[in-house]
Protein 1
Amino acid sequence: MSFPDSLRKTKSRLKVWEILSSSTTPLTARQIAQKADGGNEEKAVWLSSVYRALEAFEKAQAVNRTLLKDSPEALYSLSETGHHHYAICMNCKSRTELEGCPFGEHEHLHTVDEDFMVVGHVVEVFGYCKDCRKKMQKDAKK
Amino acid sequence: MSFPDSLRKTKSRLKVWEILSSSTTPLTARQIAQKADGGNEEKAVWLSSVYRALEAFEKAQAVNRTLLKDSPEALYSLSETGHHHYAICMNCKSRTELEGCPFGEHEHLHTVDEDFMVVGHVVEVFGYCKDCRKKMQKDAKK
DNA sequence: ATCCAATTGCGAATGGTTCGCAATTGCAAA
DNA sequence: TTTGCAATTGCGAACCATTCGCAATTGGAT
């Protein structure tokens, strides 16, 4: 995932991006702001600007916002790419991509359990594709 | 799902419970308070008491709190039973049951694709449980 | 019926997030 | 490269869902 083309590369946004890129865990806006001014007295990026940068990234689908139930603070992390699920035919094993994700575009996930930080998920739907159903109906007649 | 035995049956809690029971959709605390005093001037249940009732229900695992990203207000609903999926900790492999099914309680799964006959589905959420998160944070400090 | 811990009414405080506005800054066009 | 201007930021104040504090009330065990 790289810095979204659609956004101006400003000092604050680049800083926020760099911090998120180099973090292995999701961070709160406050943590990002703190890391930005690395212990210095004066702030490198003002907290409200961190929020605005994150909002812009989120709209550009480059960043994920996550709310866990045990804290009122949102957690932010870079979005992963390529997110799809499949319907799998139990007969011929063919896969057809589901349109969208039952969780919504990443939302809802945080509702899972107050103690659980969600990183990803698997969704698979099983059944029979149209072709196989036809064949199976024919075969059944024999 | 019935009113938790462990909790005192007070007027406010019974009211909140009744409202949640008779609602087909999740409600915000404010909505519950409004429904409680059904248009009357004086409040039947104070908002902070609604929050406290919901908190008690949630601790008793009788109510679900849900945070969606498009609103800062939490949604509350009675916990359902039957048909579940799991959140799996990538570190310790522990499983915790997901509350509800992302496809909705009553499988409109056949809507997935007209050509696909759905027989079942798998949903698994991956991430880190609270304990492992704590451990990982400690380890990170070393 | 009595007693006491649990609960509520009520308002004030908290704290994460958003907003407003003047000053600054990317960056497209000249 | 310089210019022009819309986008962005610094900064603080405002917002608002939720939590807290405390005195008054109440459920329910004895």
Note: Residues 8, 10-13, 43, 45-46, 48-49, 52-53, 56, 72 of chain B lie near DNA strand C (CB under 10 Å from a C1').
Protein 2
Amino acid sequence: MYNELSPRKQAILKAIVDAYIENGDPVGSKALTQSKQFVLSSATIRNEMAELEALGYLEQPHTSAGRIPTELGYRFYVDALMQDYALSQGELAELNSMLKAKSAEIDKLIHNAGKVMANLTNYTAIAVKQSPGRNTVTRFSLTYIDERNFLLVMVCGKRSAKTRFVHTDVPVNEEVLRMLEQVLNNFVAGKDLSTLTLPYLMQMEQCLGNYAGLISPIIKFVYEAVDKDEERDLHIDGVDKLLEYPEFMESGKLKDMLGMFDRKDELFELFDEEGDDVTICIGREKGVEAMAGSSLVFKKIVVGGKTVGAVGVIGPCRMDYSKVVSAIRYLSDGIASAFLPGSGQLTPPSAPDEPNKH
Amino acid sequence: MYNELSPRKQAILKAIVDAYIENGDPVGSKALTQSKQFVLSSATIRNEMAELEALGYLEQPHTSAGRIPTELGYRFYVDALMQDYALSQGELAELNSMLKAKSAEIDKLIHNAGKVMANLTNYTAIAVKQSPGRNTVTRFSLTYIDERNFLLVMVCGKRSAKTRFVHTDVPVNEEVLRMLEQVLNNFVAGKDLSTLTLPYLMQMEQCLGNYAGLISPIIKFVYEAVDKDEERDLHIDGVDKLLEYPEFMESGKLKDMLGMFDRKDELFELFDEEGDDVTICIGREKGVEAMAGSSLVFKKIVVGGKTVGAVGVIGPCRMDYSKVVSAIRYLSDGIASAFLPGSGQLTPPSAPDEPNKH
DNA sequence: TTTTAGCACTCCTTTCATTCAAGTGCTAAA
DNA sequence: TTTAGCACTTGAATGAAAGGAGTGCTAAAA
């Protein structure tokens, strides 16, 4: 589909997108000839631009304005035309200093990554933290509080734990809790939830005699704890950056965005993507109406084969994709390797030696 | 200070604030006479308004506009003039249906309260969840995971628990953990942290022999868990509601707000208030520059003498205080009584029988 | 002494016409 | 195939004019 574009058309498209990303004004044929990168007259470029528009890569806000890229134009740009951006020394320093403070939990690191991203790119950043879906509880532990209350601790995998306070109508004591704990560890720990059939549960209840009534509320908690959506968490940073881009100042765009930021479920869906490298969603490509005019760039954070979260930025379609992509890739990989067991040192994904001045 | 205002001035001030809150246009003398609540000519009212302005309760955007309240004007209004708003049946139903879904943790309830508040009042809502400061850990529980890892569970009070994964250099087993657990429960549980002096810690370490090295990282976690700031959490809902008020559309107000929403620390400070009833912060009263033109109304949620959070709304100074106050009071008290042990039924703070049409 | 009618004045908002500049498409020539 | 030239379109910027809302002040009325 793309090969219908001659090299010259591609060069012109690239120049237009680059220029438009940089200053936000529709770019006309004259501006391109003045930029000295083409030895063509404005008329020739005009013809090419007219064809690019007919092909759907460009559009005109109105008759007497220059051209701006369409969603298709941006798509082609990020897929085929965009150049790699090498992070500057200062930018690398900023990212690294964040990554080195890896003392804390991965949650905090991801959260901080959002703040850093927002600052570095000057777009709104989204940091997603998600525990791997479809857990099983690997171990139970019950802690006595008083006759009617105890704490249920569920260890999921080796890296996360959830607690619930359980109130009982039957009085309990340490001994009962030990027994219950043992039953849970024998019957439920490590099992997939689908194996918890009714007869199976009844078997457990038999083991507990008078305390059989405790099982069903606990199982409810287990379901809740294991439920995939339960453990997703999403932080948005630098919302005020949106205001720096005129595309959000008019019409209802800003409202759309802020509304979407409130409906986190909808946001999560945007992050459901197969790819493992940086994903770029331009405008309504994913079918989300509120994304019209905006783009989302993100990358999953994968530690030891498990997706533990993602980090991304959201901003106008007219976004500095090449810089954003570089920053996100660096940060996402950096977080991942900071948490890879054993690896203390970061391994930057690319060797940036010559910083771009942008 | 306030008694310098004659009853008539108060009535006029009230009428002005009411009218301005309702439609956002500066209110002139003519509008007041037309409202039929005064049997005075516009000239008389003009004189009164001029005096109210001289006293600092009103101001004029420009010479040929009506008057709008100053921060002092709003202050007087909320302190002395504002009428109680009786929530309508529909509004009560909305609030109650939220409160009845009390299955979940108090965290979730508070979070939901924010969403409901935002919808009901049409202002941005803030839901604060804070565990009572300066906890002690009341009980420890250790769960074996593998030779080098175990889970540390710290129960604080009877209502909250925190977990930490601990990695050890010394191999451990169930037995060791039991011993360690006992030591922690004997020496640390229920103690104020200030009693954990160095000699005291050394005494503990003696009890543990080879495993003395485990104590210090655990104590570090205890400090973290007990640290006051650790457990504050804040959710903002309905940010897009800001856009419905023209005061945020111009100048940098919106940016100020969004910026403040990002700096949660600053927000938390606004919620540090002594009072137990609804608190109203008008504009820069609390010394926060970003609050210029905006007001915050909130109320702590107090369960059994402990502050567990707060719920509030933030919006333009021109806010429907009376409705907001009623809603917040109802919700805050509702959450509190939903979580008061034993009390299944809600006890509404006031008996609303005749809904206001507003 | 207080209230009110009357009036000149201020200042914002809206409207309309005009001008200006940028950029285009098209045609014809190179 | 490219380019110069030109007529045309359109939004943005400017400024004058009109309109309106509201005020303060003065003097008369209650």
Note: Confidence is low (pLDDT under 50) at residues 342-358 of chain B.
